Amino acid sequence: MTDDSDLIRVIDDSGVAADEPSLAWKVAIIDDDPAVHEGTRFALYDYNLNGQGIEILSAYSAEEGRELMRAHRDIAVVLLDVVMETDDAGLMLVDHIRSELKNETVRIILRTGQPGQAPERRVIVEYDINDYKAKTELTADKLFTSLTASLRGYQQLQRMVETRRGLEMIIEGAATLYDLKSMQKLAEGVLTQIASLLNVECGGILVLREGAPRERFSILAGSGCYRHFAGLAGADKLDDILRQAVQSAFERCAHEFQPKLSVLYLRTATAREVVVVLETSRTLTPTDRSLVEVFCSRLSVAFDNVILYEELHEANIRLEERVRDRTHALTTANDRLSAQWTRLRRANEFKNEVLGTVAHDLKNPLGVILGRAEMLNELAAMEPIPLPRIQDQLGHIRASARQLTEMVNELISDAMMDTIDIAIRNEPIDLAAMLAEIVVSNRALAEKKQQNIHFVSPPHQIWNCDPDRLREAVDNLVSNAIKYTPHGGRMELSMSVDDRGIAIRVKDEGPGLSQEDMSRLFGRFQRLSARPTGGESSTGLGLSIVKRIVELHGGTVDAQSAGPGQGATFVIRLPAISA
What we know:
By secondary structure, this protein is α/β, with parallel strands linked by helices. The protein has 15 helices and 18 strands. The strands form 4 sheets. Strands 1-3-2-4-5-6 form a 6-stranded mixed sheet, with helices on both faces. It has a 5-stranded antiparallel sheet with strand order 8-7-11-10-9, with helices on both faces. A 5-stranded mixed sheet has the order 13-15-16-18-17.
């Protein structure tokens, strides 16, 4: 049926390199006469057109011709007999080629030995053939002329088809590339689109140069055997051939087409330069080059679009960061202002509390002092001077002055505890000795109310703390116990030590603590439901001062009470940091 080995090549030393095989036109002879096949092969044995020979394929019936045309879609010319299995077998094959195989580029030369069976005018009008010859008139020269004209027509149609396909791909590919927002994806897309446009296997790289220094550039993408170059920077990363091709393109600022290597150059509107180096399996045709040039002319906008998008994206990120930072700063400033407003409001409330407390608590002792002073003035005017009565008044004045002094000291201590930068001066002291001194200093006050203070502690407990501050805290608790314990009552100051630290307990037999007292026990200016048993005054600051001092030592203070009338126990716990 078909002999694929029938390939006629004519080597033209001036046109084709010795190591590059020439392409051949495919010519099909479909005729039931073997002599026609042999004669045609003999007449065309040395045929050559533009450096290309021909490859002759043979079929000896219309049915074989159908199979041949289906198997070889790239046949350029068909020399077709009309009468084979039937009188119109050749004409039916023409319809099959054009209508069913949709092959509109192949050139069909109808040859017949019986012109009467297929009148020329009717056939040339009704059937899509390109030439009509009688076998008797088709000499070697006329065969050469008809074949050459048909091959040139086929070549022109092929170029038109390729150009149309290429332009359609350019339009579609450009639209796709314009949608890309990443420079790397755009570069990869360009290489893919060029390979599809040329319909050839190829490897290549895409290089971008922008800014200074001019000898520096980035390899954005690679394909085929050059895929490993993608993402590298600098000419030193390329092999000698690619490096020379890229640098030459930047210097020449133009395309260059070599037999195996094609170098494309384009410059964007933003002065960035792009070079594409392609290594193809075949030399690009003039049509290929024209399509590539058209495609490259549309890439400048795509690259500028991506660059603009990236710049806008980066600017948007920076703007969002600035907005976020500014929002955070404003939020922080607003929180700070809110906190300051809260502190000012609390300070104002505290000021009102202080003024109210001072006005209330200082009023009575000051009234006593003023009243007793008036009485002293009257007694001093008497003759003789009643010395015992004057001494009695002086005693009342002294007691009221002492009460005022205690109240002022508590206010001062509270103010000092409220400062932010207050410091604790730690030093090793014997806590047992310090607690014993507190008991001794308060015993005289307790004895006035016939009270007894009991002290329980292990001896010689050396501990790191601020002796003045801690003494003040414990002394406040002992003074409170004396103040609220009834006449003749008993109090206990004790200390215990374990692995967690120390616990200092002050236990009294006072009126105890209610649930309401427990909820506001350590607040400032908080007066409890019970009243001192000896008519003593209270600013409501003592326990808040105790809490602040203990917390500055890293400890805790709490209170325990079984309820009203059951007494109370205050416990100071300090962490285990011994001297």
